[in-house]
Amino acid sequence: MEIDFVRSRFIKHFDGQTGNIYAAPGRINLIGEHTDYNGGFVFPGAIDKGIMCEIRPNGSNTVMAYAIDLKDRVEFKIDDPQGPRASWARYIYGIIQEMKKLGVDVKGFNIAFAGDVPLGAGMSSSAAMESCFAYALNDLFGDNKVSKWDMVLAGQATEHNYCGVNCGIMDQFASIFGKEGKLMRLDCRSREFEYYPFEPKGYRLVLIDSVVKHELASSAYNDRRKSCENVVETLRKKYTDRDIETLRDIDWDMLNSVKADISEEDMKRATYVLGEKDRVLAVCDALNKGDYGTVGQKMYETHDGLSKDYEVSCEELDFLVDMARKNGVTGSRIMGGGFGGCTINLVKEELYDKFINDATSAYKEKFGKQPKVYDIVISDGARKIC
């Protein structure tokens, strides 16, 4: 995202004045899928695509906001109990209300923003917006007294309370805490996290967007979550002396001991979750050693588990991962909840061009759709630009 682009639009729409410029990134998740609600670990990183805004206090109680990409302008009072109706403006309104709860004395301001996070590709454009706005308001009106974790939770609360999305914390966490060249292992239960080096020299990280989203996603998500809860309930009855909150708290011996007491489907779901817990820890060790071959192997294993045991893949995504295997790609898997979206691929430089050409042409021939390709670099989190 170009600073000059955002500034030129801000000047045009707000009387030739300038303000401060802030940015916050979208995110990828290298491994750790469907683990958040099972009390496990995720492994996100901030990316070099995100949201940028220019903002300036205007001495009133009114927010004047311009969405550059949408060419849409909205005005609303900070203390309006209803807030704006435009869905994009709800993110600004929600962050204002949540930051006020944290003691930030938000006054009226002018804001223009734009983004280069692809919408619907699973890179969390909404979390980038929330993080960008929260960071800006904390800097302008709060003297930076609000902690990074409170900004993360303000973003999550904005989704919950003003946008109708019951999300977790991974997206906002990655957008706020991201560091260039670092991935983060986040414990979804305790919120403890650790940075791990991710500077794969000789490799490129690329997303291939299947440009499909099947309707099964929401109901399937609920079904799988219920499967995990079923297994936990069965284990609680058997192991009354153990504190079992989620599948995070069990091991393979415990799972196998109740195999006869649970459905085949529930067993498959739990098998994936326990396997993913092991894979995340294996990737931690591999990253510390700079062993990207093992990282890639675990990515493939995750995809196989998501496809066969958790059954949240689809023909299009399996096809893209198969094309990665055929082209010698180091690692590939579905990224996100499933039934569409992107694959994330760790590709050696010398194989990159052939892989992209083969995968995109074969995909278009088979499915009649042109997939989108996004090169990704791991970058810094929310920040003030100037």
Written description of the protein model:
This protein is α+β, with helices and mostly antiparallel strands and 386 residues long. It folds into two domains: 202 residues, Ribosomal Protein S5, domain 2 (2-Layer Sandwich), CATH 3.30.230; 173 residues, Alpha-Beta Plaits. It is 44% helix and 23% strand. It contains eleven helices and 13 strands. The strands form three sheets. The protein has a six-stranded mixed beta sheet, sandwiched between helices. A four-stranded antiparallel beta sheet has the order 10-11-9-12. A hairpin with a 5-residue loop joins β7 and β8. α2 packs across α4 and α3 crosses α5. The protein is globular, with a radius of gyration of 22 Å.
SSE order and pairing:
Layout: H1 3-13, E1 20-29, E2 41-42, E3 44-57, E4 62-67, E5 72-77, H2 87-101, E6 109-115, H3 125-141, H4 148-162, H5 170-177, E7 182-187, E8 193-197, E9 203-213, H6 217-238, H7 252-257, H8 264-289, H9 292-309, H10 315-326, E10 331-335, E11 340-348, H11 349-367, E12 372-376, E13 383-384
Parallel strand pairs: 4-6
Antiparallel strand pairs: 1-3, 1-13, 2-7, 3-6, 4-5, 7-8, 9-11, 9-12, 10-11
Helix pairs in contact: 2-3, 2-4, 3-4, 3-5, 4-5, 6-8, 8-9, 10-11
